[in-house]
Each structure stands twice: as C-alpha cells, then as structure tokens.
C-alpha cells in the first residue's frame, strides 16, 4: 500500500501494488502537480488493507516513509517526509 500525501498530511493518491519475489516494488505516480509531497508505504502482508499493530500500537507489518523518516513514538512529522516535485524524480524507501 502506497499513499502520496500533501503538506497537510492528507492523501492525494494511493495505490495497492503487489510485491515481487525479489521484495522490490517499483511504482510511478503520474499527473502530480509541482509542489511538496510525502509518501507513506506499508507491506500489507495479510491483505486486509490495514497496517496491523500489536496491543501497544507497534506495527507488525513492514512500513516506511519518504526520506526514510522515522518517528520516536508514532509516525514521523510530515515535515521530515516532504520532498519537492518539479519534474520526474525517483525515490527509494526502506521498509522496517
């Protein structure tokens, strides 16, 4: 599951993309106006379209954010995830 978010942390676009045997996913959002954006992604291992967590709220599925941003207790601040779009760009996000 991949979500493209704006500076207000609101979803602009999202996609559900199958993972290959290599564990690598390549996806391209199209028709994105210039601006600042963030990406949140998680591996929906059980196919329920939700990021599953344990009783303490800690994710049980792999997840990641643009700029490989990390939060101390919860998701990282949107400002730490933002990147500029003014032409075609490529990002790499490591899931943890």
Describe the structure.
The protein has one domain. It is built from one helix and five strands; from the N terminus they run ββββαβ. It is mainly β and 96 residues long. It has one helix spanning 78-81; strands at 2-5, 11-15, 35-42, 63-65, 83-85. The protein is globular and about 40 Å long. The protein starts with a strand and ends in an 11-residue tail after the last strand.
Features:
single chain; 96 residues; mainly beta; 5-stranded antiparallel sheet; 5 strands; 4% helix; globular
Structural class of the secondary elements?
mainly beta
SSE topology string: EEEEHE
Q: What is the quaternary state of this protein?
A: single chain
**Average pLDDT for all residues:** 93
Number of helices: 1
* Strand segment tally: 5
- End-to-end Cα distance, whole Å, is 14 Å
Shape verdict: globular
Determine Rg (CA atoms, Å).
13 Å
Poorly predicted runs are none
Structural domain tally: 1
> Describe the biggest sheet?
5 strands, antiparallel
Strand content: 15-25%
Helix content: under 10%
């Amino acid at each position: 599951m991949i979500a493209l978010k704006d500076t207000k942390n609101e979803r602009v676009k999202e996609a559900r993309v199958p993972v290959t045997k290599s564990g690598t996913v390549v996806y391209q959002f199209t028709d994105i106006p210039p601006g600042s954006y963030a990406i949140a992604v998680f591996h929906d291992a059980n196919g329920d379209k939700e990021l599953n967590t344990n009783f303490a709220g800690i994710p049980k599925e792999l997840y990641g954010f643009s700029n490989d941003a990390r939060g101390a207790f919860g998701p990282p601040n949107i400002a730490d995830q933002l990147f500029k779009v003014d032409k075609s760009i490529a990002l790499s996000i490591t899931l943890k």
